[in-house]
Amino acid sequence: MADTPAETTADPATAGRPSAEEVEEALKNVIDPELGVNIVDLGLLYGSKWAEDGALVLDMTLTTAACPLQDVIEEQCAQNLDPMVDEWRVNWVWMPPWGPDRITEDGRDQMRALGFNI
């Protein structure tokens, strides 16, 4: 007798939602206007999760709390997330504070290519 595959059922609450990896990949198109590197590789994205109301919540920070380009970054997020999700919002996180140690190796390579000594 042949084994039959286990039956799987999709959770209707998560059906059609992009994965964390897909969200992260989309946010790699969001470029910090001052540094010229995407927010994922800069380490500005602390994580993402789905809220009970069905919205995608991005835990993000900025290089400084007084960053004047917050609106620009949010607009770029909108351009990249709106085709993927119906509703999303940013939860701005200030602790732990951002530091250069959060930059990925890819981000460091991008910064070096732009002339930064990092």
TrEMBL record:
Q: Where is this region: Disordered?
A: 1-22
The protein's matches in InterPro entries, at most eight in alphabetical order, are given as: Fe-S_Maturation_MIP18, FSCA_dom_sf, MIP18-like
Q: List the biased-composition ranges (Low complexity).
A: 1-15
Instruction: List, for all copies, the residue spans of the domain called MIP18 family-like.
Output: 21-82
Q: Name one Pfam family in it.
A: FeS_assembly_P
Q: Which residues cross the membrane?
A: none
What PANTHER family does this protein map onto? FE-S PROTEIN MATURATION AUXILIARY FACTOR YITW
Name listed for the protein in its UniProt record: Metal-sulfur cluster biosynthetic enzyme
